[in-house]
Amino acid sequence: MRKMFSAIGITMMLLCSASAALAAAPIKIGALFSVTGPASFLGEPEKNTLELLVKETNARGGINGSKIELVVYDTGGDVTKAVQLANKLIKNDKVVAIVGPSTTGETMAVIPIVEKEQIPLVSCAAGIKITDPVKKWVFKTPANDHVAAEKILIQAEKQKQKNIAILTVTDSFGSSGREQLKLMAAKRGFKIVADEVYAPKDTDMTPQLTKIKAAKPDAIICWGTNPGPAIITRNMQQLGLKVQLYQSHGVASKKFIELATPEAAQGVMLPAGKLAVFDLLKKGDPQAKLLKDYNDSYKKAFGVEASTFGGYAYDGFQLVAAAIKKGATTPAKIRDMIEKNGRMIGVSGIFKMTPTDHNGLDLSAFEMVRIEKGDWAIVR
Amino acid sequence: MELFQQITQFVISGLATGAIYALIGLSFAIIFNSTGIINFAQGEFVMLGGVMTIFSLNVLHLPLIAAIAVAVAATTVVGVVFERLAIRPLKNATPLALIIITIGASILIRGVVMLVWGKDTQALPAFSGNDPISVVGATLLPQHLWIFGVTVLVIVGCRLFFHHTISGKAMRACSFNRRAANLVGISVGRMVLFSFVISAAVGSLAGVIIAPLTMTAYDVGVMLGLKGFCAAIMGGMGSGLGTVLGGLILGTLESLGAGLISSGYKDAIAFFILLLILFIRPQGLFKKGETERV
Predict the structure, then answer these.
(1) Do B139 and A240 touch (CB under 8 A)?
(2) Measured distance CA(A91)–CA(A113) in Å, rounded
(3) Does B6 contact A204 at a Cβ distance shorter than 8 Å?
(4) Does some domain include residue B122?
């Protein structure tokens, strides 16, 4: 008899707790970032940003009264692990949307799963393949590489530089940049007089630059992430090569100027996400306030400046959050809402998702900047 | 004329990179010479030298010379601890087991440095400015002269130590025949420890002097270690001068390959030549074949 009572008691308790949970049903969002491994410079700020945003949102009482529950997994930059963890997020954790992964390779591997399981994915990787052609359930927040490439070439056009040399890193970022640069350059009538590459861990690029020097280009475009581009900038100073150097958005942080030294980096131009130069933006720039707030709260929480990469996760969360705020709670409704959300101000730019454009950014996502005395100056 | 000038630049750039490989190769050879094992954590000693100098400079605010001394001393301590905890306790381990242990140690050191100092790349200021020096139409930096200078000093120092001091000779004796060395009263264990001390010091010194040029981060040791290993193999692992020549040849070939053939195949060219050497002269370019006496 006593056993029966206790059984009833437990059942009652379970029922009560279940109904309590129903009252404020939390919304589960999943995230896949390469927090460790070779792409950790992407994954770490992304994870930090997302956790910060969820904490802030929940402190304000959640979205429409529901708390957000975040499940973050570290893929270590491993494609196989990314696939397993995506399955885990969907099947075990039953998330309504996924932010990430950090790299293009991982994203491409996860796409078939989210397409099959019908879960919206907002990738934080830049590869153009992710949203071109458009996939029903897949969005991404970083601007396409070709937008940055186009921005550089437009600037070169303005300065009447016809013959260009390109020097790109042999990883996926560099080869995508190389492809886009060659494509765009051909379209815009540039002549590529030298096409050189370097490996990510190379320590001296004077041979490549000596070869480029002999080809007499009007400008050199370098495409890579630190430390390669910084070494190249220094090598050019060593060789006395006084040609306009363009860097990619991959080095749009103060770290680059520090590594390359302000003297060597003097006059280098690059397309930068607005976060790097938020304090230099024109008055009334629609992104200025958001960028400042993001940078301030990130700095307060983690002690370092916010990075463009963290911004990708910021935008990813905002896209999902905006959809939930408009009443979408199921994966299918969230997907539709992201697509119909209209204009949204983010860190990477001003998004305007449409059924034919799942990135939603254009040339205005970048500002062309020049390095002057160790600081950024916007080229107008 | 222009081609000549280009080639001069390729050769000079190559020699400068090669000197770095040579220095790292030397530190490989030192441990191999007295223990017969290849220490794959050598690249990590190089990394530690750079990272710790930057730490002493920026966080402890020491002057450059003191920072370098602290970094080299600290790396040497790491070398000693590594030998005591990971190599010494294994009395009769095969060389293969020891080599695998060194790989494990390299992963451990890299991981700890990543956790303690973060993943960012850091640069050390150049020792004597960044004004390029012009040599027969090619340019190099004052830092390159530092690298050449330190390499020469280390070679001369090693030569003197290994051929003209009792400890050096004892260490060489251990490499030829451990048991015989033991029988004539040489403490093999102490010599092994010595070799780790010298090797860690040389490796970290290499890391310090290249940090202004190549910059440093927790993961620079892998590639540098591999290139240094190539240099040591080309020189036949034993001979000091051979290793240095191996490093210089490797650097020059890389640079000429990148400049004259294709920058995409730069590493492929270097490693192809390494394979070729291993096939044709497995004992190294500059070593006479050894005869086993029975």
Answers:
(1) yes
(2) 11
(3) no
(4) yes
Could you say which of 2.40.128.20, 3.90.1150.10, 3.90.1680.10, 3.40.50.2300 is the CATH number of the domain covering A146-279+366-378? 3.40.50.2300
Query: Measured between beta carbons, which residues in chain A are less than 8 angstroms from residue B213?
Result: 203-204, 231, 234
Q: Are strands A350-352 and A343-345 parallel, antiparallel or unpaired?
A: antiparallel
The domain total for chain B is 1
Sort out which chain A residues have CB atoms less than 8 A from B223's CB and list them.
201
In this structure, what token pair is assigned to residue B36?
């017969």
Helix or strand run (H / E) with residue A236: helix A228-239
What is the predicted ipTM?
0.84
For A:49-68, CB contacts with B below 8 A are none
Q: Residue B27 pLDDT > 80, yes or no? A: yes
Task: Specify the CATH number of the domain A11-142+289-362.
Answer: 3.40.50.2300
User: Which tokens is A291 given?
Assistant: 């960028």
* CA–CA min distance A259, chain B (Å): 6
**Residue ranges, CATH 3.40.50.2300, chain A:** 11-142+289-362, 146-279+366-378
Q: For residue range A358-377, what is the model confidence (pLDDT) as tens digits?
A: 998 988 888 899 999 999 99
* Domain residue limits at B80: 16-126+135-219
- For the stretch B83-109, pLDDT in tens is 999 888 887 778 788 889 999 999 999
**Nearest neighbour of A239 by CB, restricted to B122, B139, B220:** B139
In A318-378, DSSP assigns E strands to 343-345, 350-352, 366-372, 375-378
Asked if A238's CB is within 8 angstroms of B132's CB, the reply is yes
